[in-house]
Design a protein that fits this description.
Order of helices and strands: HHH
Radius of gyration: 20 Å
Number of strands: 0
Number of domains: 1
Length: about 90
C-alpha cells in the first residue's frame, strides 16, 4: 500500500464511521425526547384523561434537571412530540 492509499483508507473509514455516529446520536436523541415527553404526560395526567394546568411544571423540571438543552420550551416540544404517538398507539 502506498501513502496515498493509506490516507484515502483512513479518510474513508473516518467518513463512514462518523456518518454512523451521527445517525446513532440522532436516533438516541429522538428516543430521549419521546421518552421525556411520555414521562411528562404521564406525570401530568396521573392516570386521568386531563392534565392539570398552571403548575409551571416544565419550568420547574428545567430548573431541577442538569441536562444541557432541555429547557422549558424544549420540554414542551418533547411533550408535543409524544402526544400524537400515544394517540396512534391507543
Amino acid at each position: 500500500m502506498d501513502f496515498e492509499k493509506l490516507v484515502l483508507r483512513i479518510q474513508q473509514t473516518n467518513d463512514c464511521l462518523q456518518q454512523g455516529a451521527v445517525k446513532a446520536v440522532n436516533t438516541y436523541l429522538t428516543l430521549r425526547n419521546w421518552l421525556t415527553g411520555f414521562y411528562i404526560v404521564e406525570f401530568e395526567q396521573n392516570g386521568s384523561d386531563r392534565a392539570k394546568y398552571g403548575t409551571k411544571l416544565l419550568e420547574n423540571i428545567a430548573k431541577n434537571i442538569s441536562v444541557k438543552g432541555l429547557t422549558a420550551p424544549e420540554l414542551s416540544r418533547c411533550r408535543q412530540f409524544t402526544i400524537p404517538i400515544r394517540k396512534f398507539l391507543g
